[in-house]
UniProtKB/TrEMBL annotation:
The keyword Nucleotide-binding applies. GO terms for molecular function: ATP binding; ATP hydrolysis activity. This is ATP-binding cassette domain-containing protein. Keywords: ATP-binding, Nucleotide-binding. InterPro entries: ABC_transporter-like_ATP-bd, P-loop_NTPase. It comes from the Bacteria.
Length: 67
């Protein structure tokens, strides 16, 4: 466990692999992705990593809102 009470995990992926995160709404997927993209505490990425995020958008009353 880390200082936030969350389990510590070490993940390693082979070069050239595509990784997807799935889960229920509100389960923390976006929060984790933003933490990784911002090189948050405990995050180490190889300089070879190419990171991309696909976000969905909704259009309500002619205004574009992020989901």
């Amino acid at each position: 466990m880390n200082e936030n009470g969350l389990p510590s995990k070490h993940l390693t992926f082979e070069l050239g692999k595509t990784i997807a995160m799935t889960g229920k709404n509100g389960s923390g997927k976006s929060m984790l992705l933003h933490h990784i993209l911002n090189h948050g505490e405990g995050i180490t990425l190889s300089p070879k990593v190419v990171f991309g995020v696909y976000e969905q958008f909704y259009v309500i009353e002619n205004q574009q809102l992020k989901s």
